[in-house]
Design brief:
This is DUF3592 domain-containing protein. With about 120 residues, the chain is an alpha+beta fold. Helices cover about 40% and strands about 35% of the residues. The chain is elongated.
Length: about 120
């Protein structure tokens, strides 16, 4: 039963965390821009070391924006990449991630189902 509460809490937190930004994409218009890869940045933190991720630059409505997407593969500096973002949120620009996001949502829904099943005594 404790494992059920842990799984359910993890699944709800994950769904809220992922869904918060995707909700803007689902409920409003999407803007597509061509962004140039200007750098590949390597992140580090206290307990882990991430691989390099691309930093993009693009122009929208007369302003220049730079966004950095972690957990995405680095690209060749100077190449163009299509990024999308919800209208009014150019800092949320990212590559289309339909397959990855769908897999994450299905996995979290599976955790939610297993957690509720454990709580209810079905498993």
């Amino acid at each position: 039963m404790i494992a059920g509460f842990i799984l359910t809490g993890f699944a709800i937190f994950g769904l809220l965390h992922l869904g918060w930004r995707d909700l803007r994409r689902l409920t409003g218009p999407i803007i597509a821009v061509e962004a140039e890869i200007i750098d590949n940045v390597r992140h580090s933190a206290f307990l882990y070391w991430e691989g390099p991720s691309a930093r993009y630059r693009f122009d929208h409505d007369g302003q220049t924006y730079e966004v950095q997407r972690t957990f995405q593969a680095p690209g060749l500096v100077g190449t163009k990449q299509r990024l999308t973002f919800p209208r009014g949120y150019p800092r949320d620009a990212r590559e289309p991630q339909l397959i990855q996001r769908s897999f994450n949502y299905l996995l979290l829904l599976g955790f939610l189902f297993c957690g509720v099943a454990l709580i209810r005594g079905w498993l």
